[in-house]
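Students often ask why we bother encoding 3D structure as a string. The short answer is that it lets us treat folding as translation between two languages. Here is a chain of 318 residues written in the first language.
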Amino acid sequence: PGAGEVLIQVAACGVCHSDLHLARGEWDLLKPITKLPLVLGHEVTGTVTALGEGVEGLAVGDRVGVPWLHFTCGECEFCRAGRETLCGKQQITGCTVDGGFAEFIKAKAGHTAKLPDNLSFAEAAPLLCAGVTVYRAIKRSGIQPGERLVVFGIGGLGHLAVQIGKKLGLEVGAIDVAEDKLQLATECGADWTVNAATAATHKEVKARGGAHVALVTSGSKAAYETALRSLRRLGTLVIVGMTPEPIPLDIQAMLAGEYKIMASTVGTRQELQEVLQLAADGGIHCHYRTASLPEINQILDEMKNGNLVGRVVLTMDA
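And here it is in the second language, the structure alphabet:
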């Protein structure tokens, strides 16, 4: 490790849909800054094995996590305003620097999070991206206890969003096209579910009063179109899932309902600590299965085909 860095022996690393997009070169915005060749993985947990010069607050043997945000400058207007996710000098784990699909990783000490003692490496890994991303999105939406959150896409992010919504005192609806994922949503506490493959989703949601907030974690164009049609007046569409296709807007409907559209990306270091503590207190539990690193191509194929339920976490102990 260099100055200000730690060396971490990786114990586990979650597999995120972003890894698939990066592997396939599907994000034009990140193509110019993506490191090649690249080690993917940005939901990294493990043990500190060495400290670089000047590192304080961490020690060899500490159990830690490394999230998407590898580095932010701390000096720009966005960092000073508590919006470090918008830092123009940010570095990204598993994108601009090598990530955690590996036995060891280097990380910036100031952006490395200590893990609660009662969270295993595998349990904690998905919280470093999936968990903190939806936590921040729901918080920033401005939704209030008792209001209606509708989650479109019950995957690695969506099933955690359902749990966070219930923890915040919301009525939570879950939308997907797969019955096994809707069953997971029910197990996570969803008040009701709709299968978008067999029902007129927007009519079902409107019959329940419409969505105060529609949170789209899917990368599907159809999910966004349906979410917009499911909003109640003054409702908010929150963009989290990245779709490669443009999303059409019905301007007349937007004006008639005075809808709002906002986007939310990953989370800050403070928000990550809040999510880890929420999990440590038993407030949320990620549904996951473990796999070994040599299985990664098979896992990415399953992800591409929409066959994964919950999250897959790679473990390096083999």
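Translate back mentally: The first helix runs from residue 17 to 24. Keep this in mind for the problem set.
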